[in-house]
Amino acid sequence: MSKFTDKLIRFMYGRYGADALYRFCMVLFLILLIISLWVETPIISILNLALVLWMLFRMFSKNIERRRKENEMFLKATAPLRSFWSLQRMRIEERKTKRFRRCPHCRTILRLPIKKGKHVVNCPVCHQEVHVTIRF
Ligand SMILES: [Zn+2]
Fold first, then answer.
1. Which of 29, 46, 77 is the last residue of a domain?
2. How far is the CA of 76 from the centre of ligand 1 (A)?
């Protein structure tokens, strides 16, 4: 192991490091950076500087419990959005083998195998019968 890596590991010991909130801030920082190439306003520069300082503060913070709670709050606040995007990704990835229908009783998304025709399925959440038609 190089001397620098050794020093870095020793420095980061007991410090918080990166998490989901950090990665989100990094993406936000890059987006703001790209925007600032076209739009010249001090607001974006100040915002980006504040963002970087906050990211560094969180990363090197020794108050791990507090940083963990911040990340937890961030994950909780973005849960609906993240679940929406993961569903969209699943729909794309499984488009050749599965069809997605919404349960009319509880609004749950049902993930069904492609079998052409009319079917009656039981919703795993509300246990009601759902009539589905799969055409293609
Ligand atoms: Zn249901």
1. 77
2. 24
